[in-house]
Design brief:
The protein is of the alpha/beta class. The chain is built from 9 helices and 12 strands.
């Protein structure tokens, strides 16, 4: 596995030099190659010029903040995974980062062990997705007025296009590909995010809440993504047409 990791480059965009170099040191111990940028403008330029397996992006940056860096990358169809670091603990800041396309987030202060676990999980998930593409083409889904085209990563409800972040799309496609099957939050974390940690089920909850706002006629009474109390969630089974 060490040789495989040598091909992985990680970009750390962090203006706190102590944190940046600490993260760099521990990532290099795992044989990752690490580039550093200390402000948003330089970080965005580096992100656009190099091939990275992951971008670790601080939210509060001089020049250009992390949210804007993430927004510009996703606007340019750059799907490089982004792990966002934030000193802010409000739900709004986390949601904004996820809405703009961040794949995951950690709130400062964080443990290095947890950071490394997240990094390895994101890269492992990306590798698995890339390895499966040549063997099996993802199948489009049409169910209960919802259309999902995984090749184009596009979704629509009753003909209306729906704008989804990368993680929202993955979660919706996973649900819709298994209608009627009940999934726990821990299962969804493992299959869609690539990791399962106690205490992070709220990540699933927040993504499902945002998905419901985008695809449901009435998010308070969802018809697609249903809550199974005490267990988790499921996608509604196909509605049989009456003859």
């Amino acid at each position: 596995m060490g040789c495989l990791r040598m091909s992985h480059r990680i970009l750390v965009i962090e203006d706190n030099h102590d944190i940046a170099h600490l993260v760099q040191l521990h990532l290099q111990d795992l044989s990752y190659r690490v580039d550093l940028a200390v402000d948003g403008h330089r970080g965005l330029a580096r992100a656009r010029s190099g091939e990275y397996a992951l971008i670790i992006l601080d939210l509060m940056l001089p020049g250009l903040d992390g949210l804007e860096v993430c927004r510009q990358l996703r606007a340019a169809s750059d799907l490089t995974p982004v792990l966002m670091l934030t000193a802010k603990s409000t739900e709004l800041d986390r949601v904004l980062g996820l809405e703009l396309g961040a794949d995951d987030y950690l709130t400062k202060p964080f443990s290095i062990m947890e950071l490394l676990a997240r990094v390895k999980a994101i890269i492992r998930r990306t590798e698995q997705a890339q390895a499966s593409r040549p063997e099996m083409q993802p199948t489009p889904v049409e169910i209960n007025g919802l259309s999902i085209d995984p090749a184009r990563r596009q979704a629509s409800v009753d003909g209306r296009s729906v704008e989804l972040t990368a993680r929202e799309f993955d979660l919706l496609y996973y649900f819709a590909s298994h209608p009627g099957r009940v999934f726990s939050r821990e299962h969804l974390l493992n299959r869609v995010w690539g990791y399962g940690h106690d205490g992070y089920e709220h990540t699933v909850n927040s993504h499902i809440n945002r998905l419901r706002k985008k695809i449901e006629q009435d998010p308070a009474q969802p018809g697609h993504i249903l809550t199974v109390w005490g267990v988790g969630y499921k996608f509604s089974e196909p509605v049989k047409s009456r003859v």
